[in-house]
Amino acid sequence: MDILRHSYQYGTSLLGSSSRSVPYNAYLFGGDISRSLSPLLHGILFRSVGASWECHLSQTTEKSKFLETITASNTIGSSITMPNKITFGRLLDDLTDEARTIGATNTTFVRLDPTGKRRYIGTNTDCIGVRDAILQQHPNALASAAGKPAMVVGGGGAARSAIYAIGKWFSPSEIYITNRLESEVDDIVNHFNTAMPDVKLRYIPDVATAHKLPDPSIIVGTIPDYPPSQPGELLSWQICEAILAKAERGLLVDMCYMPVPETRLVNAAKNAGWEVILGTEVLARVCVAQQILWLECESNEEGVKQAVAAIAP
Fold it and tell me: Measured by CB atoms within 10 angstroms of the end CB, which terminus of the chain is less buried, N or C?
């Protein structure tokens, strides 16, 4: 997916020949982001292409503050995290197909309408982060995963991004979902039955069902990293253990990276003999996609390597 070329459907470029020397700002908006790695990553990526831009944290859920900040003349774009991915997306001038299909926005960028007026566009680069993190380690995964089941752990916004990524690019036979609440899965299934009707979703209700299902080739974890305690959490974890113990090992991607990238799910997958991709790698690829939209150029691979190395465990 050429996200830069596609972005010009929403307007023309804001940038000029000297824009990289202009002190533009990007922001991360979220409810609890004090330990976010995004400013570090974006700082490295900006410097790698000679841009004197900065990324700042804005710990807020206030719509007015969000609008005031992104519409400032020196704001080039923003990243949006929980719990703002749905509410803030509704405030923008337009949404890309990815954001509409997933039902959540994690990135904004600026384009100009025919009169030169700024338009604020929302998209979702979480799905690109999942895709590109997999393809960096497994360039043949688009072919090798095709026609095989996949699985997503969780029922929130990140789970929707993972379902979109796997369903759109990896051509699974179906996608299993395990989650602490069946009602959240029902919402997801109803949403994607309309948004992506060609993607088959299957809720795993119990461990016995997990044992009977064909082995998934890719698993994407999207849940916070804390020990399961409630009945639904315990059941979902037992289902994960059952799937990981199946005969054919595959690839597990965990989008979670806090408080540490070596999450409980990652360690369980490693112990079971699965290959793993850490959440820090996904985050780095999300930031790269955001930078392509903001800087309007392809990424500097040396800068990407530096960014990944800076947050490696």
Answer: C
